[in-house]
Here is the input.
Amino acid sequence: MSVEERLDAIEERLSNIEKHLGVRRKPQASWLKSWLFTTDHKQVGILYFVTAFYFLFIGGILALLMRTQLAYPQSALLTSAAYNQAVSMHGLIMVLWFLSPLGAAFANYFVPLQIGAKDVAFPRFNAFSYWMYAAGGIVALTGFFVPGGAASAGWTNYAPLSSKLFLPGGGETLIALGLLMLWGSLTMGSVNLIATILSMRAPGMTWMKVPTFTWFTLVTQLLLLFSVPSIFSGTLALIVDRSLGSLFFVSSGGSSILWDHMWWFFGHPEVYVVILPGLGAAAEIISVFSGRPLYAKKAIMLSLVFGMLPFSFAIYGHHMFLTGINALQREIFTVNTEINTIPSGMIVMCFAATMIGGAVKFKTPMLMALGSIATFVIGGVTGVFDSSLFLDVQFRGSYQVVSHFHYIMVGTAEFALFGAIYYWMPRWTGRMYNEAVGKLHFILSFVFFNILFFPMTFLVEMPRRIYTYAPATGWGPFNLIETIGAWGFGLSQILLLYLMIEMATFGKRCGKNPWGVNSPEWTGDVEAYVKNYPAVYTTQPNALDGGAPMHVATPLNASPLMISAGLGMAFIGLVTSLPLLLVGIVVGVWGVANWFKDDLYGLFKVPEEPIGERWPFNHMSHVRVGVWLALAGEMILFTAIIGSYLFIRENVPIWPAPASIHNIELATFNTLLLFSSGMTAFLALHSIRNGNRNGMVGWLGATFALAGSFLAIKIIEWFQLLNMNPPFTIASGLPGSTYYFMTGIHAVHIIVGLSFMAFLITKGVHGGFSKTNHDAVTYFTLYWAFVDIVWVFLFPLLYLM
Amino acid sequence: MRIASMITVWVYILLATVLEVVISYVFPASWALRDTSISVIALSVAAAIVLFYMELKYQPRWESLFLVVTLFFVGDLILIWTASLVH
Here is the structure.
């Protein structure tokens, strides 16, 4: 009897029981509701997948518009302004709203299945990540419909081009707001997936048994966790520059170099974020279709963790060779970049060694994986040229660079991820694609891709981002060939669309395991996944044959969608209309209130995970791991903020003495209040650990009062500064800009802490905590101590030095 | 952890903060002495909070890994950003 027939039989028996008892079961959620409110990792993965392709379509159309414009000299299809918008939005959409999320789609769907977890560590935050990503994309795209058009400062949003002086329209502000939502989404997503991999592995799933794709995902998410906070603070500063008149990126003190640091500290690791999920999938595909285990898996993991991960943060300056950073740093960045080719080369060599002596089957996923590796080698070789300081001076800003990064970002990432679609989609749907059409898709894509990007390597004198050129330059024939390649590459993807529809609807049934893979995600029933009944894995052989226990799917929840939609509407309203802003705020606050309400009354419950492999964090729950990861992200955020301040101080020769502006005595008193609140927060924890519930509520109340007083005094301080003569405002100079920015972000953290305390006090009064059940109080204490530590550095920097 | 230890740490944090303020008044023009000593005190206060309020001192050693790894990237960022304009 098939699983489908067994499920039907169970359904019939349940109906009979209903009739017998005279009761009715709670009706299942509607199809739409089950997708909008889902928190199930597989559905969230599919949502990412579909949305990523929506953004691919838009980004692809923009690319074709650009290429058509450049096909002939002096073409008039696009104006210069329209071309700038197309090139900027194409880059942002393709990198941030298509390529990274497509990797996230596979990670969401397959990582829990590969490691034997029932779901990700924080399912509701997982849905929240998705909706923030989707809503952020909509906010960004709204720029096309506002006066002045969409963002047009390039995908890097370089300052001061991105300032209000040069781009006064709303598009640049909207892209910054959309990006801010995306950064939030990426940070939550990274915390979630890392915590899942670190602390929710099934019994027996030791580190060396963890499948390759999950390893690559872990490193990808670590890169995001440590890189995104830098650009989060940069984007926030850009928004404040544009909306409140601060001077971070428009003065010589802050300058474009500060933005470059903030952008590329994220931007270079982002390259690895884009390619690693694809390479992880390629590793699995090459192993499966070579019929051999991955060669030197341990060496690959070591090169990822100790090579690519740290080095990607130590080489990003090669994007800044011509900005005026000092000579020693330029030399170090050159050397580091060239060293970083070692782990990349090692991965390629291990893939090649896996195939040697194997029985290689050239199915479509394998062809795509090989295409990915081939383009990775070409992109890598051209990248080595660009890493050289003196060559980069020549190539900088030319089409040679455009060719290089498209070989990496499009060739390597996209071919590998297309391979992943052919490899894994039959697992989602239980249906196979047409192999001949799949191979045709690969051949056409690979040929047209190279027709598109290879000629660019010769255009070393053609500047990027120009919307037209003179016939006398001789660039015309190259550009015409590239445009033919672009249209061919774009149209080839119709085959991919057809095959995806085939796999989703009318393709041949492919059975449990069409590729004969031993990896854990393949060991369950296809039907079980299609019908969204999560299976529990162990790494013990044949565990499923005995009938693995099934448990209920992760519950539905509306809050993630409501908060994201509210925030998206508020951000669009901020630029376009006040009523929309107000509606957005109401919807968002309603969503937050519902989230807290669910927590207060325990309405959102996820089934308990059996404890499995957690080494080296055996003593920590997945929530505690998540809290520490979130704090790690926060540390980088404030480091970027403090780093910006130090950069500015170093760059500005004259800085007013703090005592000439600030009331030091008041600030000192306020600091002592905040530091005392750290003590009372700890006493609250100490009380509940001893079973003293009233003591806990009392000490939390004291913490609330101290923190509230700190915030009130801070607001008084701001008013005094704004009313002094001359006024000390955010727009009055860099001292004002940095002061309000830093204290403002810290104040937001205080407000979050106050909300958290209000929740804990309410729950405590209602008897929600006990001697053995007080994890939330512990996590609050950790958070509050962190808020104290931030002020330990902000206070002397802003008031004493 | 004993309450007495916590109160000792709290008193240390308050005194250290006051000491920072005193130093800023005593050496207003000597940035090397002032900034170095205040930075050292601030680092010691942060360490005290991490060890005692965040209880890292009392947790299994592996929990420190989150902090140690993050500090690598913190150091990397500060070093590159502050040194990039020094010629």
Q: What stands out?
A: Chain B has a mean pLDDT of 92.
